[in-house]
Specification:
The protein has one domain: Fumarate Reductase Cytochrome B subunit, CATH 1.20.950. It is mostly helical. The protein is elongated. It has 8 helices and 4 strands. The chain starts with a strand and ends in a 16-residue tail after the last helix. Strands 1-2 form a two-stranded antiparallel ribbon. It has a two-stranded antiparallel sheet with strand order 3-4.
């Protein structure tokens, strides 16, 4: 037995890999991305919720980026983002470790990067009818239309990445007999308990949340000056 990073006695064949903030981020992001996709396809009044979901997704992504530097061991980019040598070793079956493997890390970076660009372009996009992104007033209509095209292209790229991500999960479950979903639910994975995650203090969590909230506040258009008041109507003189 070994006392792990979470401060509890752990079984000899388990390691605490995914901390609670990472797990909450993961599943909230899944729900929000699905809801954003549905509201985009419904259109109309649902676009208001699409925009709100975009803000939530942006906040989650900013939180995850900060947590990637201040979070616990396996949440940190420096731990799972590896070079070509590590990827080659993994492909040759020579890599052993917890958390994201070197090849899976590329998938994570691609998803985070694409989603961030998707959320950012959505702030300036429009639906050619009545909805405009929260910051669309900062640019002209032609630029907004160009960004809207990029936003739609990123949607297709994102769908391909999601399919690849799900395919990898199925491959690991069927071929390698390794369940990648369960650890993302309860945080525990097979391994030595002394490999458990360390770090991710409450102060770091609060800091990440505050930065995410501030980003959402700014992205919501709160930084924009109020629109000019409509001209006062002049009553006709009789």
């Amino acid at each position: 037995m070994c006392v792990g990073a979470v401060g509890v006695t752990q079984p000899a064949d388990k390691a605490y890999v995914w901390d609670l903030p990472v797990r909450l981020f993961h599943w909230l992001l899944v729900v929000c991305v699905i809801a954003a996709f549905i509201t985009a396809k419904v259109g109309g009044n649902a676009m208001v919720w699409h925009g709100r979901l975009g803000l939530v997704i942006l906040g989650l992504l900013v939180f995850r980026i900060v947590w990637g530097f201040a979070g616990s061991t396996y949440a940190r980019f420096l731990q799972f983002v590896r070079g070509p040598a590590a990827i080659r070793a993994y492909l040759q079956g020579q890599w052993q470790g917890q958390g994201h493997n070197p090849l899976g890390a590329l998938s994570v970076l691609a998803l985070l990067g694409t989603l961030t660009l998707q959320a950012a372009t959505g702030l300036f996009a429009n639906d050619d009818i009545a909805y405009s992104g929260y910051l669309a007033a900062l640019i002209d209509s032609d630029c907004s239309s160009d960004i809207t095209g990029i936003h739609h292209l990123l949607e297709k790229i994102l769908m391909l990445l999601v399919v690849a991500h799900i395919g990898a999960i199925v491959f690991y479950a069927r071929v390698k007999k390794q369940n990648l979903v369960k650890p993302m639910i309860n945080g525990w994975a097979d391994g030595k308990p002394c490999e458990s995650a360390k770090g991710g203090k409450p102060t770091a969590f609060v800091l990440a949340v505050l930065i995410a909230v501030a980003t959402v506040w700014a992205a919501s258009g709160a930084i924009l000056p109020p629109p000019p008041a409509p001209p006062a109507s002049v009553a006709p003189a009789f």
